Amino acid sequence: MDEHEQPSKSQRKREMQALQKIGARLVELNADQLAQIDLPERLLEAVLEAQRIRDFEGRRRQMQYIGKLMREVDPAQIQAKLEQWHGVARAHTASQHLAERWRERLLDEDDALALFANEYPGSDLQHLRSLVASIRRDQAASRPLRNYRELFRAVRDIIGNSSATE
């Protein structure tokens, strides 16, 4: 493309929609997260106003205004911070799912405790063994599972400590 040519109308529209999407993600943030992003005062005020607006049409117009204000800032810095938070949230969710899978394996499979010990050396196996036994007794007696959450927390903490030391 020649340096004298301007982007097509469709290209400009796509760019504006991308800026509006970033603006919409800003509106979803809480006050602490917004404080961590260096936003111009007008944009910050527009985002806070959009968070207060409940009327559909008013909110839609405010989002367009935010998109217009986004043209005046470098969206790369904002996008990078949003992606960083999204990655942290995704990693946290994956860790939670892993802990849930291990809890189910510990309750369903007899050899799962040995496998867990291999995967996470230094774990308090006695504590895990007693929690699993307690839950199995409760299941056999058709009682509420008292230590079900405690087993999840113990597994989650062991996995978290293991990934933190790697």
Folded structure, characterized:
The protein contains eight helices and no strands. It has 166 residues and is mainly α. Helix 1 (9-27) packs across helix 4, helix 5 (75-108) packs across helix 8 and helix 7 runs antiparallel to helix 8 (148-165).
What descriptive keywords fit this protein?
Diphtheria Toxin Repressor, domain 2; 77% helix; 166 residues; mainly alpha
Strand content: under 5%
Average pLDDT value? Answer: 86
Order of helices and strands: HHHHHHHH
Which segments are poorly predicted (pLDDT under 50) over 5 or more consecutive residues? none
Which CATH class of the largest domain is shown? Mainly Alpha
- The CATH architecture name of the largest domain reads Orthogonal Bundle
Shape: elongated
Helix percentage: over 70%
Briefly summarize what is shown.
The chain has 166 residues and is mainly alpha-helical.
List the helices and strands and how they pair.
Blueprint: H1 9-27, H2 31-36, H3 41-52, H4 56-70, H5 75-108, H6 112-119, H7 125-140, H8 148-165
